[in-house]
Amino acid sequence: MKEKHTIFSLGKASKSWIAFAIIAHLFIAATTVVFFDRIGYVVDALMTHVLTKKTFIETVNIMFLVFLSRLIFSWLANRSVYEISTKVKAGARDKIYSKILELELEYRDVKKTGSIATTTVEGVEQLESIFGLVIPQAFLSLLIPFGLYFYLRRLNSSIALTLLVLVIFIPISIMMVRAWIKKVTKAHWFSYENLHAFYLDSLQGITTLKTFGLVGKRMEEIGKRSENFRKRTMELLQTNLTSNLSMDIIAMCGTAVGIMLAIRYTQSGDLTIGAATIVVLLSYEFFRPLRLLGSYTHIAMQGIAASKSILEILNKDPSKHALSRMTSKAKLDGNFDIVFKNVEFSYREDRNPVLKSVNFELKTGQITALVGESGCGKTTVANLITRFYEPSAGEITIGGKPLHTIDPIEIRNNISMVSQRTYLFHGSIRENLLIAKPDATDDELYETCRKAGILDFVNSLPQKLDASLVEQAKNLSSGQIQRISIARALLKNAPILILDEPTSNVDAENEEKIQATLQEIARTKTTLVIAHRLRTVRDAHKIITLQKGKVAEVGTHKDLLDKKGVYANLIRTQNQFEPVIVN
Ligand SMILES: Nc1ncnc2c1ncn2[C@@H]1O[C@H](COP(=O)(O)OP(=O)(O)OP(=O)(O)O)[C@@H](O)[C@H]1O
Ligand SMILES: [Mg+2]
To answer: Where would you find the membrane-spanning parts of this chain (predicted)?
Structure first.
């Protein structure tokens, strides 16, 4: 059966460090007992006037050892918490990232990028308090009071038992307010997630907001959400404060009872002054671990609320398509002809299909162009070939093999693609190109830049290929971004080439260069060019026109013009605006 993720499975990798942290803290607690025990011993020695030089030196040595071991164990405890926190966070991020990859595009279709970012960045940060603080402390809260009980019993069993019984009131008070705190913390986390995602979205769209003069309105909304977040935060602080206060009262009253009992038993002669000193000093230690657990639980509530969002991603079942992607293992070889047979597809089952009974063939050595009105399904065809989505009916084959039997990674390894919404990473132009071929030489890089019509631009930069691109390549023009991504696709040199509107922002001169390159390299590849600007497809071996998700016409530029159908219509409309196309 498939593993179901729980909060605990997120911390599995740090199990041994958690045990280590517990052991280190137990040693620290033990040194406290040794220290107080020695104080009691010295007090009794002073009371009976038998503090010898030997006892004094022995005491100094013990104190020194206590301080030294506390130092070492505290360091070990801190180190363990650090290891737990890094291991848990790295593990959770890895799991979330692999899950998003496994679910592929379907996941991003349903969840906002901003909210995925909040979960993976902030939510994961919050996990450290659960595993680094709460879980070790929960064990300590159980072990330390019992340890103290067994130690104190030797001095006076009724005081030991009374303190142990009083300690139980702290977990009772935690349980009583738990549901209330949980509710408030949850509301606090969601208002945070909500504010964060909205803020991120507003930052990314700041130019658009400015153009529409909507910055003020957006700021107002951010203000509203911030105010809501402030209210939730105050509410959370209030609950935490109340709960901490009640725990403090229990701990203080318990300690007071311990002290009073110590005095009483000393008066009755059942306890020496030294032993009473130990009881006074140790009373609060009974309550300390649980008191700390209470505080840590408040901090971790945030993590628990955040872990809900993380578990929601991790436990999301992959669609049946994603599952089929995981199990198909066939490989591609020699033949890269692509065939669509009666392909039907819709992004959502309850919507009208985007593609309806689509049939066509892409042949190796030919350029096939796909044209049609905006929204008719061209990019969808590319998404299906790359197996980001699966057809709901019909079949797509590459080299005769059904796509659903081929590993998606294998498919994508064999495709060079320039997508319509291309993405360049933060880094240098060189780094962006090397994604396609990590071992490419400088000569190869410059040659591909030439073929993609970007060489002059690269050469004009002082740092050439090492010039850096800022996030989303905002320091380049749209045409430059397109040409770099064409260069990246050419460099990959895969047997299938898919170009989705590759030159929509490229000037005529550079477009000419790219066309020439395409004609040359397409001789050995299966090439699909999707284009709005019809002059880019004029020289294609075959043009397919899509209309409302159906293939309307197939033929060469000339055939289709003669047909005077959809294509001829498109040409006529475009000629009115861009009278470049000759017939
Ligand atoms: N991820 C998606 N989820 C749901 N619907 C989608 C998604 N992507 C596209 N669509 C819808 O599918 C239809 C076809 O979209 P597609 O992107 O294939 O059009 P296109 O022909 O490439 O258009 P354009 O020329 O504008 O790029 C459109 O109606 C669009 O709204
Ligand atoms: Mg498109």
So the answer is: 16-36, 56-77, 130-152, 158-181, 241-265
